[in-house]
UniProtKB/TrEMBL annotation, chains A, B:
PROSITE patterns: HMA_2. It comes from Linnemannia gamsii. One of its GO terms (biological process) is copper ion transport. The lineage of its organism: Eukaryota, Fungi, Fungi incertae sedis, Mucoromycota, Mortierellomycotina. It holds the Pfam family HMA. Belongs to the ATX1 family. InterPro entries: Copper_transport_ATOX1-like, HMA_dom, HMA_dom_sf. GO terms for cellular component: cytosol. It comes from the Eukaryota. This is Cytosolic copper metallochaperone. Residues 1-65 form the HMA domain. SUPFAM superfamilies: HMA, heavy metal-associated domain.
Amino acid sequence: MTQYKYDVTMSCGGCSGAVTKALNNLEGVDKFDVSLEAQKVTVESATLSEADILDAIQKTGKKAKVAEQ
Amino acid sequence: MTQYKYDVTMSCGGCSGAVTKALNNLEGVDKFDVSLEAQKVTVESATLSEADILDAIQKTGKKAKVAEQ
């Protein structure tokens, strides 16, 4: 299991809801947290790569990048 | 050229921006308008079906349906 962190620009509950929906629908995600306050998304997965998950988040149309540790 | 209309739930500029980005990236779209105030999206295309466009909008994670005329 690997944990990945992303910075995602989300302005309202509709924005964070869209990211939540995308991660709910993404196969291979074991656990995730979307924080509108922190503008952060944390995802745990045993099978997906950092890039796979970033791609799924960006498909919602949100500006997203891998968070600096 | 056919014009399609959709009801899309968008709560803020980030939401409507995400839909705008998705339609900008969708090949076959000739013209479109995203209205946050009206919660409406209008798309003109010569090649895409009503369902193709609805699918692209829904991929942003927004609640969307074909508008009743």
